[in-house]
Amino acid sequence: MTIELPPLPYALEALEPHISRETLDFHYNKHHSAYVKKTNELVKDTPHAGKSLEELVRTVEPGPLFNNAAQVWNHAFYWHSMSPQKTSLSGKLAEAIQRDFGSEEEFRKVFSQAAMGRFGSGWAWLVKDGGGKLSVVSTPNADNPLRDGKQPLLTCDVWEHAYYIDYRNARDRYVEAFWNVVNWDFAARNYGANEVELPRDEGLRKTG
């Protein structure tokens, strides 16, 4: 039983000029692929071998297995948080952002600050709680809001490998560019769902 590398939902060059083909090639084919390989190595012949990826993320104690499994999950979610097609914030998600942040502009400011202010490696997330209230959280390294009972709607990867080829150490320029490829449709579907939408039929399920 193995966890497979989920397909990238667009071509490697699809997010240019905001994120280059070279960056996606390294990020997806090297980093994401390595996390999948290491997760499979670490679960082999252990009591965790039969667990789904999400179960691993939610329940495994902090350590190498959690770090790698969570990075598989986080990256799969990150790819779908972006789109080469222009999308816009609208509908119930727009209403919720207006309610909880005051405006889309203020939300972007709070999210960008979370992404740029994360010291070292990590992630910025738009999440909702069990009552539907939205918030922005920043997590270090491989940490995931699912561990705290929060449902991710959108994420931005701020590990250096996500942007260093294109922007060197200018994380602020990368975060600014991220807004040009945000997949609001994906975030809206997650907001309207009772659980996070991860493409389970695209490699994240276990196969024999």
Molecular structure report:
The chain has two domains: 21-83, Helix Hairpins; 91-197, minor pseudopilin epsh fold, CATH 3.55.40.20. Helices cover 47% and strands 12% of the residues. It is built from nine helices and five strands. The strands form two sheets. Strands 3-2-4 form a three-stranded antiparallel sheet, with helices on both faces. Strands 1-5 form a two-stranded antiparallel ribbon. β2 (122-128) and β3 (134-140) form a beta hairpin. The longest helix is centred in the N-terminal third of the chain and has 23 residues, at 21-43. The protein is globular, with a radius of gyration of 16 Å. The chain starts with a strand and ends with a strand. The model is unreliable at 200-208 (pLDDT under 50).
Features:
208 residues; alpha+beta; Helix Hairpins; minor pseudopilin epsh fold; two-stranded antiparallel sheet; globular
Task: Reconstruct the topology from this structure.
Layout: E1 2-3, H1 21-43, H2 53-59, H3 64-80, H4 91-101, H5 104-117, E2 122-128, E3 134-140, E4 151-157, H6 164-167, H7 171-178, H8 184-192, H9 200-204, E5 206-207
Antiparallel strand pairs: 1-5, 2-3, 2-4
